[in-house]
Design goal:
80 residues, mainly alpha, Beta-Lactamase, 4 helices, 9% strand
């Protein structure tokens, strides 16, 4: 029971998305949908660039993907 409560608290207070190694979205939570303005159906299966804000430089995303490919943890704020 505590695990479900913890998961629910995390998913309702943070935006969460998961992608495959090609940058294709495989999961988004409800908060991510609220912030992005897209539905889950519109996001899942699409490239994560669909929510890339034009103010965020491409170099930032390049660095993020390098970190992901190295299987390192990312804790960064991004504008979407």
């Amino acid at each position: 029971m505590k695990l479900e409560q913890y998961q629910s608290a995390i998913e309702s207070s943070n935006i969460i998305s998961k992608t495959d190694i090609f940058g294709i979205i495989t999961f988004v939570n409800d908060e991510f949908c609220k912030i992005s303005g897209y539905t889950k159906e519109e996001l899942v299966g699409k490239n994560h660039n669909i929510v890339r804000h034009p103010d965020v430089p491409a170099s930032t995303f390049k660095q993020l993907w390098q970190t992901i490919l190295q299987k390192k943890r990312i804790n960064q704020r991004l504008k979407i």
